[in-house]
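Hi both,

Apologies for the delay on this - the queue was longer than expected. I finally got the zinc ion-bound model through. Below you'll find the protein sequence and the ligand SMILES exactly as submitted, and right after that the structure tokens for the full complex including the ligand.
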Amino acid sequence: MISFAEVNVICVNSCKIINSIRTVLYRTYSSGFNFVPKSAPVKESDLLKLKAFIENFDRLCVVTGAGISTESGIPDYRSEGVGLYARSDRRPVLYKEFCNSEAVRRRYWARNYVGWPRFSSVRPNTAHKILRLIEDENKVRCIVTQNVDDLHAKAGSRRVIELHGTAFKVMCLDCDERICRYYLQEVLDRLNPDMNVTTSMIRPDGDVDLSQEQVEGFKVPTCENCGGVLKPDIIFFGDNVPRQTVETVKYNVDRSDSLLIIGSTLTTYSGYRIALQANSAGKPIGIINIGKTRADDLAVVKVEGRCGDVLAKVYALIRRDEEKQKRLK
Ligand SMILES: [Zn+2]
């Protein structure tokens, strides 16, 4: 006969084992580019065209989307077969729902709290690192990213405009207070000492799945300055990009000499608008993406392939030619 205490020990141990298996599965999963859609091998002629594109311009405006972060193990929303929309029925929270419902906010923050350790520890991949190298060579006017994952900054890029905000800051809906997301995690830890859930799941904004039971009782703090409602500093679906951000992007596109779109289908208008502005000003457009984008018809060069793979090969070609030139001198 097994006692109640022994059953408890067995349950706790089983949970630990299941969590370890999940962690191992996650590592296996994320290291194999499982969130990256399949694509045909990259054509050599396309690589050479992209190389010429990058060499010819000195003030690139780079636009990046979720496709650049899939190689870091963060899935995108829309990719065929591997994106979140293809994998589950879950949709991101809408701005109005978040603002209007305390229950929605509690669920959001509980899930965001559990997903944070995993989400905040994701590292930049080859594509982010090569963009940083190109920026260091003074060829990049700005990087406009649609991602909220901070991976460009983690790779060392400095000229980054976060079009849809950042998951690493938290704002107050009622005053100008902005706090660091790491600080909020400490506050949430203190308020919810019994919340012992870990997850291996990850979404583009750090959201994870939790049961209603796990969400109920989760305590969400208010703004320390005014007692108002806290929201991650990201543009939710149904919300608008702030006018100041739109103007900053316009200003920088104006002063760039070309546009390079990486890992984005430009489905959202805030991204597509940048391609339209560049096109109407006669600035050449290049694209690296697996699958169609809204700007395909506007591009002078389009390369279908993994962002990291394509950029690494093109960068190697540029470097090889530079070395040759040096030797000839
Ligand atoms: Zn406030």
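Main takeaway for now: Residues 4-31 form the longest helix (28 residues).

I'll put the files on the shared drive as well.

H.
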